[in-house]
Amino acid sequence: MKEMICINCPLGCKLFVEKEGNEIVVKGNRCKRGEEYAIIEIKNPVRILTTTVFVEGGKHAMLPVKSDGEIPKNLLKKVMKKIANIKVKTPVKYGQVICKNVANTGINIVATRDMEEK
Predict the structure, then answer these.
(1) pTM here?
(2) Distance (Å, rounded) from C-alpha 24 to C-alpha 1?
(3) What integer best gives the mean pLDDT of the chain?
(4) DSSP for 14-76?
């Protein structure tokens, strides 16, 4: 049995998840969203990635970025290795794609703020 806290609504239900054969049984949820959350977390957990990349010629040394979609949790280290080597040149605009199809996930890494030149 796996325990987790649901993050889909303010209730924060404590969930208890068990596999019974091919079925996943969720207990402790007070709404359908909790059950759906737990099943996804067991079958294929995904995350939105937020991080920073290096900047050349900017007002700041780092630029905040995020994924424009959910990345499978088991690919996060691979994605971070790709992002660690990125260095962008200014100017950068909010929403600008910094890395297209990062690590062949189909997900882009985008800027979450403007960055002007020095």
Answers:
(1) 0.85
(2) 10
(3) 96
(4) EEEEEEETTEEEEES-SSHHHHHHHHHHHH--EE--EEEEEEESBSSSEEEEEESS-EEGGGH
